[in-house]
Amino acid sequence: MTSSITNYKLLTSNVSRTMTQLSSQPEIKREVEYYKANISKIKSVDDFLGNQRIYNFAMTAFGMKDLIYAKGMIRKVLTEGVDSQNAFAMTLTDQRFRDLATTFDFKKYGSTATVFDRAQQGTVDKYMQNALEEKAGQSSEAVRLAVYFDRKAPSLSTIYGILGDKALYAVVRTALGLPDSLAGTDIDKQAKLIGSRINIDDFKDPAKRSAFITRYLGMSDAKTNAAETNPSVSLFSGISGRIDMNTLLSIQTLKRFGS
Question: Residue 63, SS3?
Fold first, then answer.
């Protein structure tokens, strides 16, 4: 079986060619064309939430596909915007909420919020990046997470940013050889432990980030091979599916400015 490291290098060696291939796929092409043709018609939070195709496209673009069901939470994020430090999005650890609210800033710009490039081509670019990550997942979940980590890790500013993102946390736990059960312990203790093992600023350095990703992929393959040898050894604890809303909020609102 081809190693995850090999698959990752094959996928990322010519990203532009891969993107061209993806953009020609009928389903992706259809959704991109619909979004481009209709996003300027979205004039309010109600319009955004009411057009399911636009909403799904945007949520997918921002890596929030697993939160599509949480319209009440997204309404609050978009309604309050990002100008106030007390705005809902600004109280959450996960940068994705602030990115979404900044891109679709109906609070500040009202009916003109979707005319900016960040809401149009910028969101399409993010959608295509997500498609790339899904393609990575066709070879293995580990490769998908590695591509996601490479994109998101440079923007991290605190350890709590890792804890608030289940995919990033899965990568870090595996790379460091930490048990999945760690996620169920006290949030501050988790942050302290991980902070003692990594320097988050290293992820801004492409060489150091690449080395960490290689370490993760190697550890992931070793874990998979061990599980195949011994079926009683479990793989990753669930990193897909819905997050219970109370659990999500408890993570997001804790220690936003922690380190």
Answer: coil
- Mean pLDDT, rounded, for 123-140: 89
Helix (H, G, I), strand (E, B) or coil at 175: helix
Prediction pTM value? 0.71
In whole angstroms, what is the distance from residue 42 CA to residue 51 CA? 8
**Interacting residues of 167 by C-beta distance below 8 A, sequence separation 6+:** 145, 148, 149, 152, 239
Report the distance separating Cα 162 and Cα 202, nearest Å.
14
Phi first, then psi, for residue 239 (nearest 5°) are: -120, 15
Tell me the pLDDT tens digit for each residue of 66-99: 999 999 999 999 999 999 999 999 998 788 899 9
C-alpha to C-alpha distance for 25 and 80, rounded to whole angstroms: 37
List alpha helices for the chain, DSSP H: 4-12, 15-23, 26-38, 45-50, 52-61, 71-80, 95-103, 106-109, 121-139, 141-152, 159-163, 166-176, 187-195, 206-229, 245-252
Instruction: Give the number of C-alpha atoms closer than 13 A to the C-alpha of residue 32, restricted to the C-beta side.
Output: 19
Query: What are the tens digits of pLDDT across the range 166-199?
Result: 899 999 999 999 998 898 899 999 999 999 999 9
What band does 229 get if pLDDT is binned at 50, 70 and 90? Answer: low
* Integer Cα distance of 49 and 56 in angstroms: 9
